[in-house]
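Let's practice the habit of predicting before peeking. Look at the sequence and jot down your guess about where helices and strands might fall. Then scroll down.
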Amino acid sequence: MTIMGDEIRQIPGVVQEQLDATGAALEAVAEAVRRARPRWVSIVARGTSDHAAIYARYLIETQLGWPVGLASPSVTTIYHAPTDWSDGLVLAVSQSGRSPDLTAVVEAARRGGALTVAVTNVAGSPLELAAAHTVACRAGEERAVAATKSYVAELAALAGIVAALVPDSDLAAALPRVPAVLGRTLEAASAWFAGAGHGRGLELVEAVAVAGRALVVSRGFNLATALETALKMKETGRIFAEGYSSADLEHGPIALASAGFPTVVFRPDGPMGAAIDPAAAKARARGASPWIIGGVEVAGAPDALAIDALAELPECLTPLALILPGQLLAEAVAVRLGLSPDAPSGLSKVTLTR
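Done guessing? Here is the structure:
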């Protein structure tokens, strides 16, 4: 087994550890947010953590009704443009907490009157020291270069922050069920990629490896899943993979869909799944054979992985589970190509940008 694969399989335990240990920190953040009463939220992140930020944007806007934007660090670090940070909440998301540009934004925002909160996996990092509050990912050391368990831990921490602000919500009620759902999702996805039963995951791995490219599609909360899966394929397998919202796909990139362009669709059950279906149908009409990864509604569909356990979660928590088959796909494609998913050429675990 690769180190990456081992760390993917640690994810249910990581999330359980986080749920057990971060209650006091989450309540402190929630209380600070209630006192500050922010009128807007800005999230600053890079790389994989950018996708966690996209997830947080959907989570905050749907659960709290606050407008959310993704910060552009170069506005602070390169252009040195003055920003009015008053009445705001600035969330910084970083596995290492060491990138100078993220720290600079948090420092500027805190000086400017914003409430600042860091979500990071490394205690005592510059980002943690810069922020007024921190929620720890508690993923432990991550040895593979490609972030897997730390990414899901970021999602869980962000969901925990929002759940603490809406304790009577479906989100808060379902959060304790997440580790068990993650475990069952891993079992289902691992069997699919092993070719068990009628699973066709091996065919997907082969198709992506041979093509050297892929489209990865979803929408809403799971746009983050599509983007992160595509990034993992790029990082570990040198696959030219692009992640799209299904709505954006229909606005032009659908022209890429063809028999020679593998298409992976993450489809949650419910109204969002129905909204994603037209893009998958258009891809199929153009000659593509989309592989669908989703919940019970895709059971029996050709080239589909149906994860029954997703029925136990509201859609807003499904990205924590649906990314697992995406990570396993990236790992499997890299191994099929004879590459090491643990130490991709030219990449380092921590990237420092200014």
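How did you do? The chain has a mean pLDDT of 94.
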